Amino acid sequence: MATIAFRSTTPTSLSIIRHAFRSKSPRFQSTSSSLSSLSDDGDNKRPSIAIVGSGAVGGYYGARLWESGSYDVKFQMRGENLKKSTSDGFVVTSIDGDIFIPPDQLQAFEDPNDVGPVDWVVVCLKSSSLSDIPDLVYPLLESKRTRILTIMNGLIEEDLIQLLKERAGGEEFCAALYGGMALVCSNRTGPGTVDHSFAGLLSGGLAISQERVFTDEENQQAFQDLWAPTSIDIAYEQSLLAGRWRKCLWNLPFNGISVAMGGITVDKIVNDSGLRQLANIIMDETVSAANADMAAHGFGKEMYLDDADKKKMMDLSDNMGPYRTSTMIDFVEGRPLEVNYLFTKPVERARALGVCVPHLDTLVTQIEAYQRFGNLK
Amino acid sequence: MATIAFRSTTPTSLSIIRHAFRSKSPRFQSTSSSLSSLSDDGDNKRPSIAIVGSGAVGGYYGARLWESGSYDVKFQMRGENLKKSTSDGFVVTSIDGDIFIPPDQLQAFEDPNDVGPVDWVVVCLKSSSLSDIPDLVYPLLESKRTRILTIMNGLIEEDLIQLLKERAGGEEFCAALYGGMALVCSNRTGPGTVDHSFAGLLSGGLAISQERVFTDEENQQAFQDLWAPTSIDIAYEQSLLAGRWRKCLWNLPFNGISVAMGGITVDKIVNDSGLRQLANIIMDETVSAANADMAAHGFGKEMYLDDADKKKMMDLSDNMGPYRTSTMIDFVEGRPLEVNYLFTKPVERARALGVCVPHLDTLVTQIEAYQRFGNLK
């Protein structure tokens, strides 16, 4: 298994794949080798997928995978979410079409040991639960078969790989590990219910893979094939590092300001001249840190973030309405905040690279203090 | 009248005068010419003082002046404060000794036209009420007799002088105008009641004076004589500009962070490692802006703010306990915030001088946004 996270195979630009069909019924059965199931216990030999963490993000993307009809999808859930979903079904309301998974079709589990190895593990936990991942994921892995996709926030890869290696007692815990960045407005509205209100682009890039099992090209194809039967727009990141920073480009100003201002929605930020300007400055600081980090990792300028990326994020936010960012929800509801990987790590990385990010530093100092005051760890 | 605010006559260092006696009974009758009353309607020829704004600051310092027995003190009050004080008396609880002004000894007024010219006008309003000052103060002035002392926050002098000149239809509206900086923890606890919990040093410096009436030395002596019969520790600022910035050195980090963090007390700031560090950085930025401003006004380096000033402010804050800053109280109680002169002007001045104050800029952007959101103007 390669040891370098944030791989770049070819320095091509990001291409977004828009799926032409958005049917709720299964219309697609993949024939690509990367998608065919290596599992014997799959339903009708469909590839098996375990969604670890079925909240706002896992619930949404997992339901889209289930909706395609192409996969044997199993949802890891806990507590009220598990109870309500298994009794009444799992409900996704969405601007792109609602989904209802009836209780008799919902495969939900709490303990991953009840499932065993699958083809794909899609991890959608808060980065504040990073240390829980090895125990939750390990029983779902078969070293040369399973691919992991972490649709999570923050610069998590280095620590996650280390944790998984420790759990596996060695390097080869999976066939490939991807990072996923969800540009989606999705909130859990209650046990067994998720509301998707805006956007939905999912980008992903490779963190590490076992080169003796799959080539990088096969891994890229596998990621694209995974989402092909769904209505999800995807983009493949040749550099996961660029993808992570591009997600920071939204998270740092918008999750950041929404919390630092005591819990405000995105419309308040974009519609206030001062906060909008602050968001712009935070994006400038993020671009500087991102590009210095990419230079330090040997990526060329064609990978760098730029004003077009900034504009995209601001345009997206302008159309988001009174969206409550995930960190803002955690904050106002007194739940653990995603501070370390989402906020502290980017600032630390900027500092280590000698990049000045004083506005961001102020916000992050405030958020860290809120976390300490509320014991939101 | 000299047109330059922030005068410096001699570049001596700040000297703090500690009064040896702290009696509640009058023990001092000034014989200095600058203190002897020019008024005919004074009680026993004692110098007359009008306190304009009898809240946390005006109530405290006004009561100390009254307590000395040396002055004919008249308190400008409004609404519930006026009603309660005139019926039940004015109460100051203080770590330096309580004061009670019985109703039959309290001279309170609402309309300054009922008072007429006095020797001293001590203005203790929020800087957010700056534009109310000319109408409140003008009836109390006799151009060649009255000295004005504004114990107020922020870089107010330039605008205030302009407003007073406009109201007077000319330049010579008073004999001398001083700026006062109160390093005091004092809160209004209800109508007719003020609580003084910590510190109390009052520094002051000359903004402008009529040179044909008094010399700068006479004005300095007059300021010192004013407070001599009281228990208030004073300091005379050879440069009002330095004094204003020295006050900013506390206000910007502590009022600033207390509001930007949604309304927290000073102990929360000094006891949290991150916020304490942020306060330190804000002080560094303030020192840079202050010294650049002093250089631009032609003051020498002996006037500059330095690490000793920073340390003094941090030591003061370390002993302040759960003190609620004035802006924090206004914020949590939904009252107008002192944003413009306390926060925006210092940032604007720094920007005009090319001094980088990004951490402060972030806080001020947040505070300005809170002001807009809550319509706290």
From TrEMBL, chains A, B:
<feature type="domain" description="Ketopantoate reductase N-terminal">
    <location>
        <begin position="49"/>
        <end position="200"/>
    </location>
</feature>
<comment type="similarity">
    <text>Belongs to the ketopantoate reductase family.</text>
</comment>
<dbReference type="InterPro" id="IPR051402">
    <property type="entry name" value="KPR-Related"/>
</dbReference>
<keyword id="KW-0521">NADP</keyword>
<dbReference type="GO" id="GO:0015940">
    <property type="term" value="P:pantothenate biosynthetic process"/>
</dbReference>
<dbReference type="Pfam" id="PF02558">
    <property type="entry name" value="ApbA"/>
</dbReference>
<dbReference type="Pfam" id="PF08546">
    <property type="entry name" value="ApbA_C"/>
</dbReference>
<protein>
    <submittedName>
        <fullName>ApbA_C-domain-containing protein</fullName>
    </submittedName>
</protein>
<dbReference type="GO" id="GO:0008677">
    <property type="term" value="F:2-dehydropantoate 2-reductase activity"/>
</dbReference>
<dbReference type="GO" id="GO:0005737">
    <property type="term" value="C:cytoplasm"/>
</dbReference>
<feature type="domain" description="Ketopantoate reductase C-terminal">
    <location>
        <begin position="241"/>
        <end position="371"/>
    </location>
</feature>
<dbReference type="InterPro" id="IPR013752">
    <property type="entry name" value="KPA_reductase"/>
</dbReference>
<dbReference type="InterPro" id="IPR036291">
    <property type="entry name" value="NAD(P)-bd_dom_sf"/>
</dbReference>
<dbReference type="InterPro" id="IPR008927">
    <property type="entry name" value="6-PGluconate_DH-like_C_sf"/>
</dbReference>
<keyword id="KW-0560">Oxidoreductase</keyword>
<dbReference type="InterPro" id="IPR013328">
    <property type="entry name" value="6PGD_dom2"/>
</dbReference>
<dbReference type="InterPro" id="IPR013332">
    <property type="entry name" value="KPR_N"/>
</dbReference>
<dbReference type="InterPro" id="IPR003710">
    <property type="entry name" value="ApbA"/>
</dbReference>
